[in-house]
Design goal:
The chain has 420 residues and is α+β, with helices and mostly antiparallel strands. It has helices spanning 2-12, 16-26, 52-55, 57-67, 78-91, 105-110, 118-123, 134-138, 162-167, 177-187, 206-213, 229-243, 256-259, 275-282, 320-330, 333-343, 361-369, 382-399, 403-418; strands at 43-49, 70-76, 97-101, 141-142, 145-146, 149-154, 157-161, 219-220, 223-224, 268-271, 290-293, 304-305, 307-313, 346-347, 373-374. The longest helix is centred in the last third of the chain and has 18 residues, at 382-399. Residues 1-33 form the signal peptide.
């Protein structure tokens, strides 16, 4: 157990204590891990983050009927998923096929836990990178090799109250940073505890996304660029929303019906496709009262953030051939559309977006934004960098601290992380 913990810490660049906690939480004797080494029957194990019963089980059952390959699906809450994968990576015993969050890919590629599927990707036109959104493909490719196939995708767009924006002179969503600031300022003048736009200081990608819109290159090689002019300018822009009362300085702890419905204390915010149903079900709004739009353009672009999930084969699986068959089956257009209907997770295959199930005008806004969307830097330290950013940003939001000093601090911390 001690040796396993040390290996885990070394491979994934985390502390020994964190590695030990992961091992103790999950347990080295995971009963599901033996299925990955079972070569006496056609049974493979598929680890899925979330509830697989409605999302993927019908599709997997159809795969079994077609191929005769049985699949044991293990539904794992996302809160526990990384711990399970850490243990599998360290013990070299686990699933055959894995649902991988895009932000976790770098960690598991660096620990050699994911199978290099470059040969399959380059030889099978059905899973060719050309079929997918560029931002999604970037999350699967490392040093010229492919370790996964994109499965579902998400990006961020602007949610806005059409009726309230009309009251301040905007018949459509703001298209530029200047318009966003102007509209938010006017909306904040509606009365006490009223705002115009939510500058989300609990989302670690938020500031970096705006920095890219201002032309920032976040990291060059192993050198962070967070304290350079493009990012500092972008964050100074965001800080203005706090300073003039156009954005709340802290989380108001409001449900979507309270923040976006009714009088809408926060009538504009940026979020992903998962928020669509929440607005429809809980905000109590008529269809013509709200909409979504591509992000307002900064100095350079209106770049958004690409996220989602990929399908990868566990490198230590003894059923790789069968796992690849399931991966390819789940990657077809029909399967991606079925998965969207079961889970609301948007397909990464560009060809799937012509289907009538995705014809809603709001859904098509996400399709348009995906053309201008990239993942955060695909390095194993990125999650820690994101958390450090939130800590650096908090005094800017709460106390009006200097953005330049905050970014100098973050840059220094990041240099140390990248050069360990």
């Amino acid at each position: 157990m001690e040796e396993l913990t040390m290996k885990l810490a070394k491979w994934l660049g985390i502390s020994v204590a964190a590695a030990a906690a992961a091992l103790l939480l999950v347990g080295c004797g995971n009963s599901s891990s033996s299925s990955g080494s079972n070569t006496n029957n056609k049974t493979i194990t598929f680890w899925y983050g979330g509830d697989a019963d409605t999302a993927v089980k019908p599709m997997v059952d159809a795969f079994t009927k077609k191929t005769g390959i049985k699949v044991k699906i293990q539904s794992i809450p996302w809160s526990q998923y990384n711990d399970k994968l850490l243990t599998a990576a360290a013990s070299k015993s686990g699933p055959d096929l894995i649902l991988m969050g895009t932000t976790g890919m770098a960690n598991y590629v660096s620990s050699k836990s994911l199978m290099d599927i470059s040969k399959e990707v380059k030889s099978d036109k059905n899973i060719s990178p050309n079929n997918y959104f560029e931002g999604s493909v970037k999350t699967t490719e490392f040093n010229g090799k492919y370790y996964a196939v994109p499965w579902y995708v998400e990006t961020r767009v602007l949610y806005y109250r059409k009726d309230l924006l009309k009251q301040v002179g905007y018949n459509e969503a703001p298209k530029t940073w200047d318009q966003l600031y102007d509209a938010a300022t006017k909306l904040s003048k509606r009365g006490k505890n009223m705002y115009g736009f939510n500058v989300d200081f609990s989302e670690p990608t938020f500031g970096f996304m705006f920095a890219r819109q201002n032309g920032a290159t976040l990291i060059k090689g192993k050198t962070p660029q967070f304290n350079k002019k493009p990012m500092v300018e972008a964050l100074d822009y965001l800080a203005k929303f706090y300073k003039n009362g156009a954005s709340p300085k802290q989380d108001l702890k409001l449900a979507i019906g309270q923040s976006f419905g009714g009088k809408a204390p926060i009538p504009m915010f940026i979020s992903g496709p998962w928020m669509m149903n929440s607005v429809k079900q809980d905000a109590g709004l008529k269809d013509d009262q709200w909409g979504v739009a591509v992000l307002p353009k900064g100095k350079d672009n209106n770049m958004s953030n690409t996220g989602g999930g990929n399908l990868a084969v566990f490198n230590y699986s003894k059923n790789k051939s069968a796992a690849l068959k399931l991966l390819k089956y789940l990657s077809t257009k029909d399967s991606q559309l079925q998965y969207y209907k079961n889970s609301d997770s948007m397909p990464t295959l560009k060809s799937a977006w012509t289907d009538k199930s995705l014809s809603d005008s709001r859904i098509q806004v996400f399709r348009k934004q995906l053309n201008d969307s990239e993942p955060m830097p695909l390095i194993k330290q990125w999650d820690q960098i994101g958390q450090n950013y939130l800590k650096a940003w908090e005094p800017v939001a709460m106390q009006g601290a200097s953005v330049q000093k905050a970014m100098d601090q973050l840059n220094s911390q990041t240099e140390q992380l990248l050069n360990k």
